[in-house]
Amino acid sequence: MGLGPWAFNVTYIRLCETNSSMEGTDMSELNKLIEETYAQAKRGEWGKVLSAWNQIPLLARRCSRYSKPSSGWTFLHQAAYFGREDACRELIRLGAHVSKPSLDRKTPADVAHERGHSTLAGLLQKASEGHDSLWAAPEDTDLLPSSCLWSEAKESRATEMLLVAYGGGLVQIPVHSRYFVDSFDRAIVGWHGSYDPPYGMDGNSMVKKRT
Length: 211
Description:
By secondary structure, the chain is of the alpha+beta class. The protein has eight helices and six strands, in the order ααααααααββββββ. The protein has helices at about 5-15, 25-40, 45-55, 55-65, 75-80, 85-95, 110-115, 120-125; strands spanning about 145, 155, 160-165, 170-175, 180, 185-190. The strands form three sheets. The chain has a two-stranded parallel ribbon with strand order 1-6. It has a two-stranded antiparallel ribbon with strand order 2-5. The protein is globular, with a radius of gyration of 18 Å. Mean pLDDT is about 90; it is low at about 1-15 and about 20-25.
């Protein structure tokens, strides 16, 4: 049946991505699109949601921080409800708050567990390590999340300048620089914002065996 309303909005939102001074009406249109996307996620139409995110990176970033005012549920709650590990991983990569509770105090991991998605619940719990300290997920959608999952460290190379949230500030990883990522593709950041390699408080590499 095609993309429906997406086909109408794709060009518009892509133009918005290049415009650093969007008017209030522009934001209203974007917020409406986020609501429409959330409704699709709630109906379990994750193929459409993921396709839209792939076409419109700005929409994906905004959705990763969105929570429904009436329930406090996020896109991550909905992905956990339907057992969609692929969507969960993408939202976490973008900076979703993994342990953010809904108004009835349920985290995405709680929802996954209640729905019988035990493996996914464990994955979400693991992803939340450090969420209440230096590696808290950023509110700013222009910033990428950081991680302290040292044991998962895998070498990567920045294809563009990366702005990564850490300790209430940001770490800049220049294009072509080496850094390390966890299994969710979040940049692993160590003490004082170190990343190549990330260091511990003692000055030793936290990924020593991999560097």
